[in-house]
Write a structure and sequence with these properties.
The complex is a heterodimer of chains A (351) and B (304).
Chain A: H1 2-20, H2 27-65, H3 69-91, H4 95-98, H5 105-109, H6 119-128, H7 133-136, H8 145-152, H9 161-164, H10 167-193, H11 201-228, H12 251-266, H13 274-280, H14 284-303, H15 315-339
Helix pairs in contact in A: 2-3, 2-10, 2-11, 3-12, 8-10, 11-12, 11-15, 12-14, 13-14, 14-15
Chain B: H1 8-11, H2 14-17, H3 25-41, H4 52-55, H5 58-78, H6 85-100, H7 110-138, H8 140-150, H9 165-190, E1 198-199, E2 202-203, H10 204-211, H11 227-230, H12 236-242, H13 258-262, H14 289-303
Antiparallel strand pairs in B: 1-2
Helix pairs in contact in B: 6-9, 7-8, 7-9, 8-14
Classes of the chains: A mainly alpha (351), B mainly alpha (304).
The structure holds zinc ion (2 copies).
One zinc ion binds next to helix 7 and helix 8 of chain B.
Chain lengths: 351, 304
């Protein structure tokens, strides 16, 4: 009799064990991940981009006051610094997913792959026009990063040195910088105002992963594949003009920054990172795989001689494309694994 | 996600402790509850459901030993060959990207994605199950294998596992194809914003039906629903009728009877009175585990 009294609750406990372990609370870890992401990545990186942009603005003023070759080079180098910072923001842009009113912000800043119209043609028309420059630069495409690149890096073959530091051109560049500053400060404020504690953490993490998937696709196909003539659309027709930054040779830094941003979200020493989240969802090994592939891509990229524009037909650039495409596909395997769909397969019902 | 004790597959314990399985203790418990209520309403002694003539019938005893052997075969021979859902999902994704181009992941409230994904999985899974089951009956080659399941002369919940490994393989294949295809389409559009609405790791809809007594499909409890409901959901009595000598051309459905109704194979339990289970012709040859496994091949050989 006594024996039964002891064994019954024990048996029930054993039977219930799958139920008890079924839903461990991941919420805290997820919240912690998001809080770290918000502070160390989202706010930090957008503030950093804004900061470099302000330096660029100051440099433009100096250039306007004293239009020397040295001041131009300083401005150009600050442009590159800004690109590195901006690509980090763009790579994991989730603000639009959190708040509808921010959906189009990156599109007001960055026109890569957004328009079929030629930004250089529009800019040349604007520069040649007799009207006030702020009147002719009304389109966002002509006030975007891509316009800024064209304005700050005049073709040395076609233009005289005077044209490079032409006042009207610098005025146009300042308008572009003002436009970018406006939207970027909104983004920074937007990230600061999110209250992670009240948000649905699972949904936000999904958006982070989606941003990385989108970014990995565009990195492989838009930024490398199309220039190398390796994707379907431009198969066999490589062109350096399809690089993201055809005139400033900043494409290398852009790709580097994007890869490093992926790497940083997946694994940071000092914070709860995506790897910790994947561990809770049975997808850790896939994410470790991606991390290794990203490291390999970084090594590949660094080994390619500069400038990239002269390397688009090289074997190493092709290898880079394949490596980036591999990373994109690997992200899908994380999702597939996290869904854990194979469990029922063998019990698949007969009738 | 539920913890499945590693290695418990081999001990057979997985069947009792894994909510993905029909014989999960929770479902058995809820089934017992339904049986008790059923007996009380029918003013039938509960002990009548424990009839030795059923549970210790040669056919039921064969089910038990076959269950063990078939489980080992499934785990050791079938599992390594089984098509994975992940592969199909990946192929679907590649196909979608090749046909439609890359899809920037759509931003939409997660709950709607999860809800429609869960529903799509359930509906297409159930429909494909209906189709394959019907083919198991109508294609002579497949029927030789499906006869193994229909050779049962008494029905107990374990009869669910009296299925030839080849049929298990086909149903597993179907599961991987359908689940992978739907998952691929959903990932293409929604990416990580995807999850199954589940209870302890089981599709919530499937869980509900398991709790509601799926186990009674193979049992002596003639639980029929009223006619209107039986036009939507297969009742245990309807599946039991499918197991009768004359009933093998109707009620192929798994959970929904909707498909039977749409494709003209529905029979309501109120239309039936006799329930004689088994096969018309050759029941005698399915009398041992060995025969259950080999008889389909012998039948095939004879036909040549
Ligand atoms: Zn059956
Ligand atoms: Zn059948």
């Amino acid at each position: 009799m006594n024996y039964k009294i002891i064994t019954l609750p024990l048996l029930l406990l054993i039977l219930a064990s799958p139920l008890l372990s079924a839903k461990p609370s991941h919420e805290n870890t997820q919240q912690e991940f998001l809080r770290a992401l918000q502070e160390q990545v989202l706010i930090h990186d957008s503030a950093e981009a804004l900061n470099t942009l302000q330096q660029l603005e100051l440099s433009l003023k100096t250039l306007q006051a004293s239009p020397t070759q040295q001041n131009l080079q300083r401005t150009q180098s600050l442009f590159t610094t800004f690109i590195i910072a901006w690509k980090a923001v763009e790579t994991v842009y989730i603000l639009g997913a959190l708040d509808d009113s921010y959906i189009d912000h990156p599109r007001y800043i960055d026109y890569f792959h957004q328009t079929k119209e030629s930004i250089p043609t529009q800019l040349e028309q604007a520069l040649d026009s007799p009207k006030a420059i702020e009147k002719v630069l009304f389109k966002y495409s002509t006030k975007s990063i891509n316009a800024l690149e064209y304005l700050l890096f005049p073709d040395p073959q076609q233009s005289t040195e005077q044209k490079a530091i032409d006042t009207r051109r610098i005025e146009a560049a300042k308008i572009a910088v003002n436009n970018i500053t406006f939207w970027l400060s909104e983004i920074t404020q937007g990230y600061q105002s999110i209250n992670i504690a009240t948000a649905k953490s699972t949904a936000i993490i999904s958006q982070v992963v989606n941003a990385l998937i989108d970014s990995s696709y565009k990195l492989a196909n838009w930024r490398v594949g199309e220039a190398a003539g390796l994707n379907k659309k431009y198969a066999g027709r490589p062109s350096a003009q399809r690089l993201e930054y055809p005139v400033s040779n900043t494409s290398f830094q852009a790709i580097l920054s994007i890869l490093k941003t992926h790497r940083k979200i997946i694994n940071r020493d000092d914070a709860i990172d995506l790897l910790d989240i994947a561990r809770m969802n049975n997808a850790e090994s896939e994410l470790i795989f991606i991390q290794k592939e990203i490291d390999q891509a970084l090594d590949l990229l660094i080994s390619i001689p500069q400038p990239l524009a002269e390397q688009i037909e090289s074997q190493s650039f092709k290898t880079l494309y394949k490596q980036l495409d591999k990373i994109h596909n690997a992200y899908y395997f994380i999702l597939i694994d996290a869904l854990n769909l194979n469990a029922t397969i063998i019990d698949a019902d007969g009738d | 996600m539920p913890m499945v004790i590693e290695g418990s597959h081999w001990l057979g314990l997985d069947y009792l402790f894994n909510p993905q399985k029909r014989l999960y203790w929770g479902y058995l418990l809820s089934t017992a509850g339904i049986v008790i209520v059923y007996c009380l309403l029918k003013r039938q002694p509960i002990t009548s459901t424990l009839d030795k003539k059923i549970w210790w019938h040669p056919s039921a005893r064969l089910d038990y030993s076959y269950f063990i052997v078939a489980s080992i075969i499934k785990m050791s021979l079938l599992l390594p060959w089984m098509l994975g859902v992940g592969e199909v999902t990946y192929w679907t994704l590649q196909l979608m990207e090749a046909l439609l181009g890359y899809q920037q992941k759509i931003i939409i409230d997660r709950q709607w994605v999860v809800l429609s994904y869960t529903l799509a999985l359930f509906l297409l899974s159930d429909l494909s199950r209906y189709c394959l089951h019907r083919l198991m009956h109508t294609i002579p080659f497949l029927w030789k294998f499906h006869q193994v399941h229909h050779s049962a002369e008494v029905l107990t919940p374990v009869t669910f596992y009296r299925v030839h490994p080849l049929e298990n393989f086909l149903f597993g294949f179907r599961y991987a194809l359908v689940t992978g295809f739907i998952t691929g389409i959903f990932i293409h559009f929604y990416g990580a914003n995807l999850a199954i609405l589940d209870i302890i790791g089981v599709n919530i809809i499937v869980f509900v039906f398991h709790i509601l007594g799926d186990n009674l499909r193979h049992s002596t409890i003639h639980l029929g629903y009223f006619d209107t409901l039986e036009k939507w959901l297969i009742s245990p009595a309807q599946h039991q009728y499918h197991h009768t000598v004359t009933g093998t051309t109707v009620n192929y459905g798994g959970i929904l009877s909707l498909w039977d109704r749409l494709f003209g194979s529905l029979r309501l339990s109120s239309q039936e009175d006799h329930y004689h289970y088994g096969l018309n012709e050759i029941t005698t040859r399915f009398n041992s585990v060995w025969q259950l496994l080999t008889q389909p091949f012998i039948l095939l050989k004879k036909e040549r």
